[in-house]
Amino acid sequence: MADYGLKGQVAVVTGSTSGIGQAMAHALAGEGVNVVLNGFGDPAKIEADRAALEKSAGVRAIYHGADMTKPGEIADLVAFAQREFGRLDILLNNAGVQHVAPVEEFPIEKWDQIIAINLTSAFHATRAAVPIMKAQGRGRIVNLASAHGLVASPFKSAYVAAKHGIVGFTKAIALETARSGITVNAICPGYVKTPLVEAQIADQAKARGIPVDRVVEDVILAAQPNKSFVEYPHLAGMLLYLVSDMGASTTGAALSVDGGWTAA
């Protein structure tokens, strides 16, 4: 098993109380990284999961409930990591939400929410993290984009706009920090069977007027040539490479983990 040399480092993972973010936080903790968890959910479950992760991985796992639509709370999330641990090595901007609807029916409040959480929150977290990482002379910022950061699908105007924005933001900050010991990259997954995607199945069925049992084969995985959901370990492997010293020369990249979706 590879030793990524991450023991004792500190990571902030937004949106890490479920789905991809939770899996990524667990992968980092498994390599000895102390993690700051963030996200919504039942407080008792969040606390139970936090305590279980801390015990199983032998690291410190702490929670901050920053709302990803509120800039002040996002800045405090990053400051909290520095206050608690004295440093910040890894920032994973993962928080995301989704809504599926034709553009003429797309609720304005849903557009604003998706842009705020999926795109603007990454700006606020990165803005707060970069000075800390510059002072350390090293840092790793990874943005969870999507295949939809590279290509589009109908009925997802806000999500596609936000994820394309994340890819562009990644490139811009990579150039700004290229000589600071900081790398900035985006991971672009295809479909992962997260709670977010499972909710989309019903939404897509409604939007397209087709039965739920056809959505996975004909819509969800239609664009993935391997016809398989991306699994959490596939994403974790990419993350661990990027945040380790092995990934030191990789910056400004939008790395596809999508079963061939964007190859066509």
TrEMBL record:
Secretion signal, residue range per the UniProt entry: none
Broadest EC class assigned to this enzyme: oxidoreductase
GO biological process: monocarboxylic acid metabolic process
Gene Ontology molecular function: any one: 3-hydroxybutyrate dehydrogenase activity
Pfam families: adh_short
Entries under PROSITE patterns matching the protein: ADH_SHORT
EC number assigned by the record: 1.1.1.175
Family: Belongs to the short-chain dehydrogenases/reductases (SDR) family.
NCBIfam families, sorted: PHB_DH, PRK12429.1
Name of the protein in its database record: D-xylose 1-dehydrogenase
Organism listed in the record: Phenylobacterium soli
Taxonomic classification: Bacteria, Pseudomonadati, Pseudomonadota, Alphaproteobacteria, Caulobacterales
